[in-house]
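Title: Prediction job returns without error message
Component: structure pipeline
Severity: low
Priority: P3
Assignee: unassigned

Description:
Job completed but the reporter wants confirmation the result is attached to the right record. Sequence as submitted:
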Amino acid sequence: DRNHDVPPDYAEELAHVLANTFSRGGNVVIPAFSVGRTQEMLYYLRKIKQDKMLSSFQNFEVYVDSPLAVEATSIFNANVSECFRETDLEMIRSGVNPIQFPGLRTSVTSDESRAINLDKHPKVIISASGMCEAGRIRHHLKHNLWRPECTVVFVGYQVPGTLGHTLLNGAGEVKLFGETIQVRAEILNLPGISGHADREHLTAWVQSMKVMPKRIFVVHGEDAVTDEFAAHLSEVTGAEAAAPYSGDIYDLTRNVCVVYGSRKRAEKKAKKRSGSSVFERLLAAGERLIAVIHKNREG
């Protein structure tokens, strides 16, 4: 339901964030999807180093901490000429890899991941998942969110209900691994970095089809957005477009909806906390041990 603005110079914006954070002695933590977004951030970080945008911190290190992201980056590196834009080919022909640079580190094992937070030097940490719902990024948030000198930079859309969305909307504290973590780090969003086509591009893609579909189903997006975009496609392409809801049944041979499902919005169920988390089991074991100690006071 929107058109993307002309992309700003993300390298310049990111360099500004890095300079401010490094001058405070903090880390820049970037939650990023392993395929595509991580490599895009490496592209901008390489540009920052290559163009010497951070003269005072030119030797800063960048850690990619995600086994999947490391594998994906290896595939990009092995297929550089196929993975980058025409405008980058001249740079590639001159021997420059768009996503490789001095100071780039990768971690695959758990020990390598833990070692990142033992290093006290200011650095960039790129880790998955992009919405902070799982993966190693949650460990890096645990170690950096409470530090006012650090910055967490979001570079992708955060779905409501995710930890990423909660942080972007000003949460003062969050729970990670059974612990309450105070949010003192600077939380930033770099809008506009999107791997998706916008309204204009999607419309042009449909209009370019040599044979217009008899019906178009819009199935990805929030309810109001899919309804609106389906109506838009019907108007501009002449094709019948619909955003089906759960329970809708279509007869494709006759191109009609034969059953309409409920339009009532489903309430998201609150996550039920399991009583058997590692922290809770450890706490229970500790209480049992204290009880045994007291019982054997005179022993």
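Comment from assignee: result matches the submitted record. The mean pLDDT is 88.
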